[in-house]
């Protein structure tokens, strides 16, 4: 006589396989927003590290552009005799430097941020875009110090503030958008090609002289101004001067080109960053 024995076979557990996505990835702004507390922590860390163990501290933020503005005013204003659209040349140059310094510093700091935070990138998961974004926000502290100095220069030269100052946040936003776009491109490229860290300062120096920092846009022939305005720095520097000292060759077509080029830099940089982000932890 045979008996059958029934055995309980445990159910097979499902297997979860995590694989990297292929091709282009969506921006996923919601994920960046969920990690906003981490972004705030990174911004605070950048500010503390920038002025840690310095004798003058934040004073360096004011001294460096002030000395640069005086040198540029002597060379290009006194020696070369460049025009300044009727404004005092030192005020004209310092106004351009205030806008340009935020753009260039935010761009350069953010571009090398992933390489400088290699240990953090390779050990913990979080949206990698937060690292360059933190430098875009932390550079606003230096910009605020320079803006206060610019208002002091306005008082010295007796340039009264006008209602145009209400447009200033818009131009600052354009500067941040353009700087973020370029920084995302270079920060992603520098992970694989470290040459970018050496090429970017040279590229920024050339870009400065291709922008109306020490000369007005009115010096450019009207025939070439649309081509000249493809440089996004042209629009926000001229707009910054227009808002602060009431001088500048900003026109509606130039402003529209600046908005288009800044937005193009931001979205192309963000999509490219997301495209190569999956390999950062392996190659950094």
Task: Please provide a written account of the structure.
- The protein has 284 residues and is mostly helical.
- It contains 13 helices and no strands.
- The chain is elongated and about 85 Å long.
- 35% of the residues are buried.
- The mean pLDDT is 84.
Rg measurement, Å: 24 Å
Instruction: Tell the overall outline.
Output: elongated
Instruction: Enumerate how many helices there are, as a single number.
Output: 13
Q: How would a textbook summarize the main sheet?
A: none
Structural class: mainly alpha
| Helix content estimate | 55-70%
Question: In percent, how much strand structure appears in the residues?
Answer: under 5%
How would you concisely characterize the structure shown here?
With 284 residues, the protein is mainly alpha-helical. It has 13 helices and no strands.
Keywords:
mainly alpha; 284 residues; single chain; 66% helix
How does the SSE layout of this entry go?
Blueprint: H1 29-34, H2 36-50, H3 59-79, H4 89-111, H5 113-116, H6 118-123, H7 130-156, H8 168-192, H9 195-209, H10 225-228, H11 232-244, H12 252-276, H13 280-283
Helix pairs in contact: 2-7, 3-4, 4-7, 4-8, 4-9, 4-11, 7-8, 8-9, 8-11, 8-12, 11-12
């Amino acid at each position: 006589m045979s008996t059958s024995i029934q055995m309980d076979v445990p159910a097979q557990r499902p297997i979860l396989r995590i694989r990297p996505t292929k091709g282009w990835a969506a921006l996923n702004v919601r994920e960046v927003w969920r990690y906003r507390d981490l972004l705030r922590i990174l911004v605070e860390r950048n500010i503390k590290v920038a002025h840690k163990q310095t004798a003058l501290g934040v004073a360096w933020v004011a001294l460096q552009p002030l000395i640069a503005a005086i040198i540029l005013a002597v060379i290009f204003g006194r020696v070369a005799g460049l025009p300044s659209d009727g404004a005092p040349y030192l005020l004209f140059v310092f106004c351009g430097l205030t806008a340009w310094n935020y753009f260039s510093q935010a761009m350069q700091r953010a571009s090398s941020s992933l390489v400088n935070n290699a240990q953090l990138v390779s050990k913990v998961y979080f949206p990698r875009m937060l690292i360059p974004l933190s430098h875009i926000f932390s550079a606003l502290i230096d910009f605020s110090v320079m803006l206060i100095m610019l208002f002091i220069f306005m008082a010295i030269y007796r340039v009264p503030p006008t209602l145009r100052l209400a447009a200033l946040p818009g131009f600052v936003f354009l500067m941040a958008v353009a700087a973020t776009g370029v920084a995302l491109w270079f920060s992603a490229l520098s992970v694989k090609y470290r040459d970018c860290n050496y090429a970017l300062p040279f590229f920024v120096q050339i870009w400065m002289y291709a922008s109306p920092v020490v000369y007005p846009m009115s010096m450019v022939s009207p025939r070439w101004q649309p081509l000249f305005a493809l440089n996004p720095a042209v629009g926000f520097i001229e707009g910054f001067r227009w808002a602060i000292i009431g001088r500048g060759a900003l026109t509606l077509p130039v402003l529209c080109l600046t908005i288009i080029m800044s937005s193009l830099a931001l979205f192309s940089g963000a999509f490219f960053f997301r495209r190569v982000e999956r390999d950062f932890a392996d190659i950094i």
